[in-house]
Amino acid sequence: ADQANVEIDSLKKKTRTLEMEMGEKEMATRSVIKKLNMEKDQLQEDFNQQNKLGEELKKKIHTINQTMQEDNLRHQSEMSRKENELQGLKNLLQDREIELEKARSEVKRTSMLESALKNYFTTPST
Question: What is the 3-state composition of the chain as percent helix, strand, coil, each rounded to the nearest 5?
Fold first, then answer.
């Protein structure tokens, strides 16, 4: 009976030792799991922030592209208007040059008539 009690005590002691080891291993496992969960949460937060920044950058790029397109259209419209204005001024200049040439021609013709009339009236008749 003493032998059996010694064995029972030994088995109880082993059981307690194993239970303590299991408790320590369970605590260590929980600690690792907690640490991994914290790392996962941090990585998820970092990912969410990067994703948010990416979306903000996409919006900024879209806004810049839209502004550039609007500016380009405005510039093209202004250039077209200026080209039309320039062509109108060129046409007006050409019309003025034609009028000036006609006026010069008329002045020359008038001058020749005036000379001819002077000659006619100042030359003695024979």
Answer: 95, 0, 5
